[in-house]
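User: I'm designing a mutation panel for Reticulon 4 interacting protein 1 and want to avoid disrupting the core. Could you give me a predicted structure to guide residue selection? Please restate the sequence first so the numbering is unambiguous.

Assistant: Good idea. Sequence first, for numbering, then the predicted structure tokens:
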Amino acid sequence: MFIFSYRVLILGASGGVGTFAVQLVKAWGAHVTAVCSHDASTLMKKLGADDVIDYKSGNLEQQLKTLPLFDFILDSVGGSTERWALDLLKKWSGATYVTLVTPFLINMDKLGVADGMLQTGVTIGSKTVKHLLKGVHYRWAFFMPSGPSLDEIAQLVDSGKVQPVIQEVFPFSEVPKAFLKLEEGHARGKTVIDVINKK
């Protein structure tokens, strides 16, 4: 759990992971700044975001630099954001940047298992050390099962503090259509495949 002064920035807040993260860190007591397009701002406020920044309304980096520094950044966008987002963190305070966009699978596909893992290890190691010397922590998110964490999430869902955001449900027979929808980007929560009602 955080205290309210703990500031969290979520880049790509309107997608499946982002909508969940906004609610989760808000339930833990953090101040949440969500970055999304203007048409998702109402959803972000409904989910509990304290501040909503429209990345289309001007230079995002400059907009965020006008705000107080952050303790934690969750980046589900990647790309150019990694070059400047770490400068938005409080230095020498344990502040952490976590990206969901890693080259792990790309390296494995390009170089094979052994060389891909080696290249990935070198990349994460060098970035971790580089940013640690600047006073912030740099991490890649990897997912693993955790019973206690799932229990905590179940309690938050049961209490109504976290609600799944579902953009659209497709029957199993329309899986290709669901993938096309995902490829369009700009998701608002998750796209779901109904495997029980297959029609």
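For picking mutation sites, this is relevant: Residues 7-102 form a domain with the Rossmann fold fold (CATH 3.40.50.720). Helices lie at 16-27, 41-47, 60-65, 81-85, 104-111, 113-132, 147-158, 175-183.
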